[in-house]
Amino acid sequence: MNMKKSSWLFMLTLAISTMITLSSNNWISMWIGLELNMMSFIPLIVDKINKSSSEAAMIYFLVQSISSMLLIMMVMLLLYKYLVINNNIFMMINISLLIKLGAAPFHMWLPEIMSKMEWSKCIILMTWQKIAPLFMMSNLNTSSIINLSIIWSVGIGSLGGINQSSLRKMMGYSSINHLGWMLAINKSMNLWIIYLMIYSMMVSLMCMMFMNYKMYFINQVSSMNMSDTEKISLFIMMLSMGGLPPFIGFLPKWMTIQSMMNNYEIIMILFMIMCSLITLMYYLRVMMNMYLSYNSSIKWSNIYYKIKPLTFFTMMINLSLPLILVLEMF
Question: Which of 174, 192, 203 is nearest to 278 (CA)?
């Protein structure tokens, strides 16, 4: 990955800013961590100067600034009232954090800036940028706005990706869908961290493969000169992202279902599972396009094809769930 020297500095401050938020014991310090995070990510977006990245940076700055202003205003009200518990204030804090995350119904900016950024920046936005706001939300009281956001995120994340030709927008809607699942188990710190770790690993591997082949649209997938091994690897990765057993992507959804069943949230979990099937459909649409359409590669040339480390690592990660289950039996 070719990066300027200054980019490594911003990557470092991006990591430090999240650590500041995670290690803080008051709202002001958390807010400072979020602001530093925003100011570190914007230069990374405009690493290569062009119209798209500049537009993405502007949209990101405006959205994050509005949510930050809302957050600090509510925090000041809390301090002014000498920490008197006010549910409306906590609801507004939750809304400001949902805007930062790009959760529905405050989601419109996320797929838009995803389509204007490089894959490497998309990986950071879909993974690392979620940690601090989710951590802050797990320390707040659950309000009705969170439950509404879970339903909206899971629904919009699944339906929004159906009609997309851009892979980056599709991954953006997929991220919104997975965010809904993470919010559903947000009260349990251990569960959402495990979910985010597994999701981050899957998303990073998939986006790295897209980045290697410079794939940005669905119609490019069928014309890629990929080996059969890489095709199978990408196919397995897509199924894993959709949460299909026995792949590793099923494990976090399994944990979520189990946790919600223990809390008797039967109707919500049924809705989430149905929406998960829709996401699986648009993942499969990408893969069917690759398998059933014309392929420019010569089939016989791939018999003695050397498996790339990324492809091998991807397959091992996605097929690790049966191995984990076997190990747990002993």
Answer: 174
